[in-house]
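Input (structure):
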C-alpha cells in the first residue's frame, strides 16, 4: 500500500561527507525536505571527526555518527583494516536504520555515504544518488545499479553510471546565495565597499599551493592594483600560514585571512573575482553568483575531474584555468593584473 494514503510522514536519511562538495548539496536537499508537509524528520549519516559534524550541528537534522575513512589506494594491510572498518560502519548503520525505519536514503558522494547506501541495499530501503562531478566517485559508480534515481551535474557523468533513471539537474544549492547586498557585506567584514575585491579559497580543506602563491603576491596586487583580498586558508593550514607570512601582509587592512568561510553566501557577495579550486559545487556557486574565476584544479582529485571541470568553464570563457604546478606568485600576478585591467572580459 502507498504509505502516503495513510498520511504517513516520511523519514529521510542523507549521507555524504569529507568535503564541502559532498556535504553542502545534502544540506540544501535536507533544508528543502523539511519545508515539505509530508516529511517528518531528516537524519544525516556522517563521520563525527570530519567537517560534516560541525556543519550539520547547525541544521535541524539528527546526526548519526559513523566512523569510516577513505579506501586505501594500495593493496596491503591497510586495505584489510579498511574493510574491517567499513564492516563495522555498515553494522552500526544497520542498527540506526532498524530503529528509525527510514523511507528513503540519499547519498551525495564520498566514502562517508558508502555505509548508509550499503545498509539501505541490505534492508531493501529505496535509495537515490547525487554526484557532483563529471567523473562520478567510486561509491556512486558501485551503488548506481540499485538506485531508484540518480542526479548528476554533468551530462558526461551518465556514461559512468549503470542506471536507466539518470537526470542532469545540476548541484542543489543552499538558498543563501546571490541575495546579499555587496556593499553591506563588505562593510560587515570591515572592508572598503568601493574597492575591487578578490576572494581566494582552496576548498573546504584549503590548498597549500594556492596559499603560498597568494602569500608571495598579495602585497603587490594590493598596492599596484588598489584592491583588497579575502583569503580562506583552510582550517588545518591557518596557524602555520599566519606564522609564515610577513607582518606587512598580516597587518594590512586590505587583506582579510580566514581559516574557514562559514557563510559562503556572504563572502561570494563581496567578490568581483574568485581564485579557487574547481570542485563542481564551487563552480555552481560561482555561476549562480555570476562571478568570473581563476581556477586552480586540485591535481590529485580522482580521475583528475577538477581539471576537466575547470577546462569546461575556460572553454565557455567564464574562467581561466591555471594548473597547480604553474600556480606561483608571478603567474597569478600576471593573470590577475590582466583580468582586473580588462573590465569587459570580466563582465563577459
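Output (sequence):
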Amino acid at each position: 500500500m502507498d504509505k502516503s494514503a495513510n498520511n504517513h510522514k516520511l523519514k529521510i536519511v542523507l549521507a555524504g561527507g569529507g568535503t564541502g562538495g559532498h556535504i553542502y548539496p545534502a544540506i540544501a536537499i535536507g533544508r528543502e525536505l523539511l519545508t515539505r508537509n509530508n516529511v517528518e524528520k531528516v537524519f544525516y549519516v556522517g563521520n563525527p571527526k570530519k567537517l560534516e559534524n560541525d556543519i550539520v550541528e547547525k541544521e535541524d537534522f539528527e546526526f548519526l555518527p559513523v566512523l569510516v575513512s577513505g579506501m586505501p589506494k594500495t593493496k596491503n594491510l591497510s586495505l584489510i583494516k579498511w574493510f574491517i572498518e567499513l564492516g563495522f560502519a555498515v553494522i552500526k548503520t544497520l542498527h540506526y536504520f532498524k530503529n528509525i525505519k527510514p523511507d528513503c536514503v540519499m547519498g551525495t558522494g564520498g566514502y562517508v555515504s558508502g555505509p548508509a547506501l550499503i545498509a539501505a541495499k541490505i534492508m531493501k530501503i529505496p535509495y537515490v544518488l547525487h554526484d557532483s562531478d563529471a567523473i562520478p566517485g567510486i561509491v556512486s559508480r558501485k551503488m548506481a545499479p540499485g538506485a531508484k534515481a540518480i542526479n548528476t551535474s554533468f551530462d558526461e557523468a551518465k556514461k559512468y553510471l549503470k542506471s536507466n533513471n539518470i537526470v542532469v539537474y545540476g548541484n542543489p544549492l543552499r538558498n543563501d546565495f546571490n541575495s546579499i547586498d555587496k556593499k553591506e557585506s563588505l562593510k560587515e567584514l570591515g572592508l572598503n565597499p568601493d574597492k575591487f575585491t578578490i576572494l581566494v579559497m582552496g576548498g573546504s580543506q584549503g590548498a597549500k599551493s594556492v596559499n603560498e602563491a597568494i602569500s608571495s603576491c598579495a602585497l603587490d596586487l594590493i598596492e599596484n592594483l588598489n584592491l583588497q583580498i579575502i583569503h580562506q586558508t583552510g582550517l588545518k593550514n591557518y596557524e602555520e600560514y599566519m606564522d609564515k607570512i610577513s607582518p606587512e601582509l598580516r597587518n594590512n587592512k586590505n587583506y582579510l585571512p580566514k581559516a574557514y568561510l562559514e557563510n559562503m553566501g556572504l563572502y561570494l557577495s563581496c567578490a568581483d573575482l574568485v581564485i579557487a579550486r574547481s570542485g563542481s559545487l564551487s563552480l555552481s556557486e560561482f555561476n549562480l553568483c555570476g562571478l568570473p574565476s581563476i581556477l586552480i584544479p586540485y591535481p590529485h582529485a580522482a580521475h583528475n575531474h577538477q581539471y576537466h571541470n575547470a577546462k569546461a568553464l575556460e572553454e565557455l570563457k567564464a574562467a581561466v584555468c591555471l594548473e597547480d604546478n604553474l600556480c606561483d606568485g608571478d603567474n597569478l600576478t600576471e593573470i590577475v593584473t590582466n583580468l582586473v585591467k580588462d573590465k569587459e572580459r570580466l563582465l563577459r
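Notes: The chain has a mean pLDDT of 88. Residues 77-100 form the longest helix (24 residues).
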